[in-house]
Specification:
163 residues, alpha+beta, elongated
Length: 163
């Protein structure tokens, strides 16, 4: 049984290894989208050093994507208190989500092969509401994700207002 929660806990950052994986994914996306578009433009416009410039654009796109992916994951925080689960993300636009215990329907843990290798997990909190109502918190340490799932499930079982 998970230990009872204190009145309020501090915002917890995601582990650094999650940011590394996000940086790799961002680099792939940045290379394909940003770098690819700039490289095609470089070749079509027949700018100097045609192929070297195009390769440079691909590298630049990859670096931009990696920086955004890394920074986004490092600026994602979670907090669990007696009222429920909170998530905050603030890269350019701030997003703060709070899921009250009474709205939680069920909880899932997802671990893909890359996440398993890095000892990470994704917690999916399905909420009451429409068919696609779910809050996803990816990049959690596997032990933290299991603790969050068990604590939320335990609180859900105790809560008289829960469905």
């Amino acid at each position: 049984m998970p230990p009872p929660l204190q009145a309020e806990t501090r915002w917890q950052p995601l582990p650094l290894r999650a940011a590394g994986i996000a940086a790799i994914a961002g680099a792939i996306g940045g290379t394909a989208l940003i770098g690819g578009a700039c490289a095609v433009g470089w070749i079509v416009l027949d700018l100097p050093l045609r192929w070297y410039g195009a390769a440079g654009m691909l590298v630049l796109g990859g670096l931009i994507g990696a920086a955004f992916g890394f920074r986004r994951q490092r600026r994602t925080y979670w907090r669990l208190d007696e009222a429920g689960l909170g998530m905050r993300r603030d890269l350019m636009w701030q997003l703060e989500t709070h899921v009250p215990i009474s709205r939680v329907q069920h909880l899932d843990l997802r671990r893909g092969p890359i996440e398993r290798g890095a000892r990470l997990a994704t917690l999916v909190v399905h909420t009451a509401g429409s068919r696609f109502s779910a809050v996803t918190l990816s990049g959690l340490d596997a032990a933290d994700a299991e603790h969050l799932r068990d604590t939320l499930a335990h609180q859900l079982d105790r809560d008289d207002d829960a469905l």
